[in-house]
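Open question from group meeting: does this chain pack into something compact, or does most of it stay loose? Before anyone orders reagents, we agreed to write out a predicted structure and look at it together. Recording both the input and the output here so the notebook holds the full record.
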Amino acid sequence: MVYFAINLVKDSVIPRARRRLFRWTLFAYFLGCGAAMVVVCYRGAQALVTLRGEQERVERMERPLLGLTASARDVPQHVKAMCGDLERTGAKLAHADEVLGQRILLAPILLGLVLPLPEDSTLASLEVDRQTGLVRFDLIMSINFTNQMTHSSFLMAAWANDLHLAKRVQNIRLVTTQQKTVRGCKVFVAHFEGALRQKG
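Structure tokens returned:
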């Protein structure tokens, strides 16, 4: 009896040279993947270290800020509390500005009244009444003036032309004049009135 040996997979087997090339290619691929994974892990670790350092730096910077208020646990809460404080302070400043806006500055009024006075005249008194809106003042004038009315008219014109005074007092008029003795000297005392200008 004759036996036949037939190898049906002989041609489908990969040659040794190709198998060796495939093995080295696969080895290089795994080696490259491993190297890439090492690089990614290294850079990720570096990023985590850097992030932790930044977090610690931010915490160091926040610590003095949070130490200013005992109630704030973090910066956003501290900022919210500061915003509330700023709103309350702003309201107080607005009220203070409103109050200051209603005050009467006496220095410009005094200066405006005194500047045009001749040497022989003196401002004797000044009364500013906010409720009635009146300004009252007395001038002591020398008895040597021949025409007190002309002198008073000159003063009222000078007061009306003073810009700083005119912004605050208007319609200054002579009310009365009388002769008096002050410190042993005879003088004329002229009483004037004016109206405070309304701000607005």
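Observations to bring back to the group:
Residues 106-196 form a domain with the Gyrase A; domain 2 fold (CATH 3.30.1360).
The two ends are 135 Å apart (CA to CA).
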